[in-house]
Amino acid sequence: MSNITDGYVEKYIREVLVENKGLLMELELYAKEHNVPIVHKEVAALLKVLTKSVKAKKILEVGTAIAYSTIIFSYAMGSDGHITTIERNEKMIEEAKNNIKRAGLEKNIRLIQGDAEDILKFLDAEYDIIFLDGAKGQYNEFLNDCLQQLKSGGLLISDNILFKGMVATDNYAVRRKRTITNRMRTYLETICNHPQLDTSIIPIGDGLAISYKK
Predict the structure, then answer these.
(1) What pTM value is reported for the model?
(2) Which residues are annotated as a binding site for S-adenosyl-L-methionine?
(3) What does the entry list as the binding residues for Mg(2+) (predicted)?
(4) Was domain 7-213 assigned CATH 3.40.50.150?
(5) CB contact at 8 A, 93 and 111
(6) Binding site, annotated residues for Mg(2+)
């Protein structure tokens, strides 16, 4: 249970959503077995809907891991879509490259190795969607560069925004996570009051913020 919503509601939603098959199911099993963080099932379903709704064809992702959400985005965009994804963990990069190859999406996905805070400053593109799923304590540092790269009418989607419920209440607080929690609270206050953004916070998965750039 994520502490974001009642366990029985979370369980029901995950049971009623259609199961993935093939490679995506394999990645879900791998993530569970090896304790690799990937987007929750209900978040993955929403990402697909949002991608199709805005007819996205160019996406930037911060935090690739094993490329689970990367592949979900790519499938949702179709064969003419392109996603740039950033990852700094070498082990994850090797797994991601292999999974991208298995999915047959090497022409649609560009994987960049390195620290997102550095890489974001040098990207020269305009994206329909930017998905933040990297280092939770650095979202504030990513924001200005992301807004420069995001087109007007585009979506900034931020995952793990409630961070196991710790952002919403100190009842779930873990002392060693207090810095990340405080930084995430600051980030939420910023995107909810930012003059360029209209933001909604959705209590699914580990918390998801969807911001529309005016």
Answers:
(1) 0.94
(2) 39, 69, 87, 115-116, 133
(3) 133, 159-160
(4) yes
(5) yes
(6) 133, 159-160
